[in-house]
Specification:
With about 425 residues, the protein is α/β, with parallel strands linked by helices. The protein has two domains: about 110 residues, Urease, subunit C, domain 1, CATH 2.30.40; about 290 residues, Metal-dependent hydrolases (TIM Barrel). The protein has 15 helices and 18 strands. An eight-stranded parallel beta sheet has the order 8-9-10-11-12-13-14-15. A six-stranded mixed beta sheet has the order 3-2-7-16-17-18, with no helix packed on it. The radius of gyration is 21 Å and the shape is globular. The relative contact order is 0.18.
């Protein structure tokens, strides 16, 4: 999408998250500046001025204008963890878990394995249509950039197909999509064991993905009973040698040394971390690897504990928040994730804002050009119909979305 010119003026609260060259961590995670009567000038899709309205207008001059009076203007929210390409449904699994009933058909595939089977059988058009609907909902949830994973193909042909479909799906949304190859998600039924399947991912899938040339990131699972820390470390090493930045699904189901393995392997982010022990967080200490926490997922998975966001921040770990939209659960509001960061994880509103903007951008290897209202970055803004960002949190993410701006173009809400 080509960039456009736009002045956003008169904001009741312009939330400035400054980029100091990396994700925010420790005390800095909670440092934002809130300006009243704030403005942002965007030219050819890039931010050229931000500050008090009169100063911005003097510096940047006239352009199509969006009136933000009474509204909060945030950097464009970055949704940093989704799996939008899948077939079938799994809502019955959630209902059965809540009621404690026996599965309708105990012999039928369940969980991610069932989604893999349904996705392999699904028509390309149906998968693209469902993904487009998910993007539209994510846009209404405030996201200007969305990280999108494969992971329901689990064979070389099917994973390449999924990446191609995700690439094609870019035409269905104004949002910027970050494509992630998730080959080591589960062990598919045709594989002999986890080690042999991981070898296939390392020696065949990953080189094929690099040759295809459209994946931005490589994700993998480090979980007890799936891919252990030794296997995950080998995949991280292969990713580094292939030149594809890596992320890790870690400690979602049990303490699996996933966090320590991700950091040691140079992953840019590790996600879930629900069961990461406090002792491991302290052992690892400060790092630039982003801890991507998923408050909605922890509730819908009925986890027995929640990720220790407070300890991660106190130990100097940058924290991001995301939805985990996937085959098992369908939250699509990054604004809700922001709000739940405060109630579920006891983060401050400022920490949660950084977690859904700048830190989320760095978790997607996109911090260099989005996630903050800094000169030269993309003109991406999420505008909420409330006079202060605290209202996003106390309304539990239901404060009305006023507008979404992507590269200076108003793609949702108020027109310029």
């Amino acid at each position: 999408m080509s960039g456009e010119d736009l002045n956003v003026v008169g904001a009741a609260a312009l939330v400035l998250v400054r980029d100091d060259g990396g994700p925010r961590r420790g005390r800095a995670q909670g440092e934002v500046e809130i300006l009243t009567d704030g403005a942002v000038a965007i030219r050819s899709g890039r931010i050229v001025a931000a500050g008090p309205t009169d100063e911005v207008l003097r510096a940047a001059g006239p352009a199509p204008t969006l009136d933000a009076r009474g509204r909060t203007v945030l950097p464009g929210l970055v949704e940093s963890h989704t799996h939008p390409l899948f077939g079938g449904d799994r809502h019955h699994e959630y209902a059965e878990k809540l009621s404690g009933t026996v599965p309708r058909d105990p012999t039928a595939p369940r969980g991610i394995g069932a989604a893999v089977l349904h996705t392999r059988e699904a028509d390309d058009g149906a998968l693209l249509s469902d993904a487009a609907r998910a993007y539209a909902r994510l846009l209404r949830g405030g996201a200007t950039t969305v990280e999108v994973k494969t992971g329901y193909g689990q064979s070389t042909r099917q994973e390449l197909r999924a990446l191609d479909l995700l690439h094609r799906s870019r035409a269905t949304t104004p949002q910027s999509l970050v494509l992630t190859f998730l080959g080591a998600h589960v062990v598919p039924p045709e594989a002999a064991d986890a080690e042999s399947y991981a070898g296939l991912v390392r020696d065949e899938m990953l080189p094929a993905v690099v040759e295809q040339g459209i994946a931005d990131l490589h994700d993998l699972v480090c979980e007890r009973g799936v891919f252990d820390e030794g296997v995950a470390a080998e995949l991280l090493d292969a990713s580094r040698k292939a030149g594809l930045p890596a992320r890790v699904h870690a400690d979602a189901n049990a303490a699996s040394r996933g966090w320590a393995t991700a950091v040691a392997g140079g992953a840019i982010a590790a996600d879930h971390l629900t069961y990461t022990p406090d002792s491991e967080i302290r052992e690892v200490g400060t790092t630039s690897t982003v801890a991507v926490l998923l408050p909605v997922a922890e509730q819908l998975y009925l986890d027995e504990r929640r990720a220790n966001a407070r300890l991660f921040i106190d130990e100097g770990v940058p924290v991001a928040l995301a939805t985990d939209y996937c085959s098992a659960l369908h939250p699509t509001s990054t604004l809700l994730s922001l709000a739940l960061g405060t109630s579920w994880f006891r983060m401050t509103p400022a920490e949660a804002i950084v977690a859904t903007t700048l830190n989320a951008a760095y978790a997607c290897a996109r911090g260099h050009d989005r996630g903050s209202i800094d000169l030269g970055k993309r003109g991406d803004l999420t505008i909420v119909d409330c006079p202060h960002p605290n209202e996003i949190c106390v309304s539990m993410g239901t404060a009305p979305l006023g507008a979404v701006v992507i590269e200076g173009r108003v793609v949702l809400g108020g027109s310029a």
